[in-house]
Amino acid sequence: MENDPTYIVILGWMRELNISLVERTVYAVIYGFSQDGGSTFNGSRQYLADWCGCTTKTIDAAIRKLIDR
């Protein structure tokens, strides 16, 4: 995706969460869509997997770990 204008931001405090890179990326994507307090993330597991370069099974595990935290 040569001219893809999409991006995510991993804020400094997110590095201190002591979570894996996949979990941090999932968190950052969801946070980016919902940080205004009024919006929500409605993306798919595949969308998150594409950002993380992994499978939806890995995304499921990452989401479970984030919820458990």
Shape: globular
Structural class call reads mainly alpha
Sheet-strand content, in percent, reads under 5%
Helix content: 55-70%
Mean pLDDT: 93
Number of strands: 0
Radius of gyration: 12 Å
Give the distance, in angstroms, between the N- and C-terminal Cα atoms.
34 Å
Number of helices: 4
Describe this structure in words.
The longest helix is centred in the middle third of the chain and has 14 residues, at 21-34. The chain is mostly helical and 69 residues long. The model has no long low-confidence stretch (mean pLDDT 93). The protein is globular, with a radius of gyration of 12 Å. Helix 2 crosses helix 4 (56-68) and helix 3 packs across helix 4 (56-68). Helix content is 57%, strand content 0%.
Please give the structural blueprint.
Elements: H1 12-15, H2 21-34, H3 45-52, H4 56-68
Helix pairs in contact: 2-4, 3-4
Question: Brief overview, please?
Answer:
By secondary structure, the protein is an all-alpha fold.
Give me some keywords for this one:
69 residues, globular, 0% strand
